[in-house]
Amino acid sequence: MASEPAKGCGKIETENVKIDNLESDQIISFPLIIEGQARGSWYFEASFPVKLLDKDGKELAVAIAQAQADWMTTDFVPFKAVIELSSLPESSGGTLVLQKDNPSGLPENDEKIAMPIRFPEPETITTIKIFFNNSNLDPEFSCNKVFPVERVISKTQAVARKALELLLSGPTFKEQGQGFFTSINSGVKIQKLVIENEIAH
Question: What CATH class has 2-118?
Answer without folding.
Answer: mainly beta
